[in-house]
Amino acid sequence: FGKETDTEDIWGTVTKIFEEKISEDQIEDTILSFVGDYMQIPPMYSAKKIQGKKLYELAREGKTVERKPQLVKIYDICDIVIDYPQVTMTVTCSKGTYIRSLCRDIGYKLHNGACMTELIRTKSSGFSIENSHTLAEIEEIMKNGDIENIIIPVERVFLNYQKATVKKNHYKLLYNGNPLKYSCFHESNIDTGKKIRVYDEEEHFIGIYYWKNNLFFPDKIFYSGE
């Protein structure tokens, strides 16, 4: 707290200093007030594109452009530890949320300024830091010939997509990467508004498909038939 920077983190150029100290109760109440939906303006130093150009590229040219607020959701903020001016917390949030900008907005609301000093992503899309490995650990596992024990199947990345299984009599279309009719699948409740992960009856993960013009088209094929 007490500091604003152009990058919204401690590594940027300081743009404003605030001298007034704020109470721990004020800080905690304000932090918790962000739980729920809120409109967040993305930082200039980000990979978000405006008119085909990344914001950080414009920022490095010394330009600042208007960014439209984006709806994000903060599901939970816990483990708040206050040692003014430092505060640590654990945030559970939706995709597209910038924690740097959350820190910025907490500072704005307190009229005190704030920037991020450290960020550790502990979980994303079903993967958690507890199951992660350092590069040195992976190198050692490779030397021991045990790499297969830690490789995660690619389909795990897409478990949030609906699963759909193709009938055996449509395998020729499936394995040749052709579009598939709705009737090619065993399921009768496929949500055509979202991408799906496609399997054959032998539980081989084929790939990701999307719905267009009354057909399911392959977006990415992963199955090699081996």
Write the layout of secondary structure elements.
Elements: E1 3-5, E2 14-17, H1 24-32, E3 36-40, E4 49-50, E5 53-54, H2 55-60, E6 70-83, E7 86-93, H3 99-110, E8 123-124, E9 127-128, H4 135-143, E10 162-165, H5 171-175, E11 196-199, E12 205-212, E13 215-221
Parallel strand pairs: 10-11
Antiparallel strand pairs: 1-2, 3-6, 4-5, 6-7, 8-9, 11-12, 12-13
Count up the helices. 5
How much of the sequence lies in strands comes to: 25-35%
- Order of SSEs, N→C? EEHEEEHEEHEEHEHEEE
Shape: elongated
According to DSSP, the number of beta strands is: 13
In which range does the helix fraction lie? Answer: 10-25%
Strand order of the largest sheet: 10-11-12-13
Oligomer: single chain
Structural class: alpha+beta
Low-confidence stretches: none
Largest sheet: 4 strands, mixed
The average pLDDT score comes to: 93
Report the radius of gyration as a whole number of Å: 23 Å
Distance between the termini: 56 Å
Characterization of this structure:
With 226 residues, the protein is α+β, with helices and mostly antiparallel strands. It is 18% helix and 29% strand. The protein is built from five helices and 13 strands. The protein has a four-stranded mixed sheet with strand order 10-11-12-13, with no helix packed on it. A three-stranded antiparallel sheet has the order 3-6-7. Helix 5 links the parallel strand 10 (162-165) and strand 11. The longest helix has 12 residues, at 99-110. The termini are far apart. The mean pLDDT is 93.
